[in-house]
Amino acid sequence: GRWWEATAKAEPHVLGRVFIHPESPSTGQFWMQHPVSFYKLKLTNNTLDQEGHIILHSMHRYLPRLHIVPASKAPEVIQLNGPSVLTFTFMQTEFFAVTAYQNIQITQLK
């Protein structure tokens, strides 16, 4: 079909996890001199995950956010809504999480 159709009830919202970059905290000079990579970030649809992966729900839309948190040392609790925190989104990173594919060719690739 050409349109989205609801086929089941939505999954309940799970409180989101935050991925803290393994090079963090680092100085602004460090971040400006090196490419920033998130290759260690792991995603899962397992709501019982104990490995610290970011939990996604199939068929939900996501827009990753990048938070810049000033810190002189690694804080125990990070307040992402604090007055000195900068948050960025990039529309080109928006995606839908999918765990079941309708196209057999995509299923075979996975």
Features:
110 residues; elongated; two-stranded parallel ribbon; two-stranded antiparallel ribbon; alpha+beta
What's the layout of helices and strands?
Elements: H1 28-33, E1 43-44, E2 54-55, E3 61-62, E4 65-68, E5 86-89, E6 95-96, H2 104-109
Parallel strand pairs: 1-2
Antiparallel strand pairs: 3-6, 4-5
Question: Which residue ranges are poorly predicted, with pLDDT under 50 across at least 5 consecutive positions?
Answer: none
Determine the oligomeric state from the structure.
single chain
Percent in strands = 5-15%
How many helical elements? 2
Give the overall average pLDDT. Answer: 82
Number of strands: 6
Order of helices and strands: HEEEEEEH
The outline comes out as: elongated
Structural class based on helices, strands and sheet pairing: alpha+beta
The major pleated sheet works out as:
2 strands, parallel
Radius of gyration: 17 Å
> What is the distance, rounded to the nearest whole angstrom, between the alpha carbons of the first and last residues?
23 Å
Describe the 3D structure.
By secondary structure, the chain is an alpha+beta fold. It is built from 2 helices and 6 strands, in the order H-E-E-E-E-E-E-H. The strands form 3 sheets. The protein has a two-stranded parallel ribbon with strand order 1-2. It has a two-stranded antiparallel ribbon with strand order 3-6. The protein has a two-stranded antiparallel sheet with strand order 4-5. It starts with 27 loop residues before the first helix and ends with a helix.
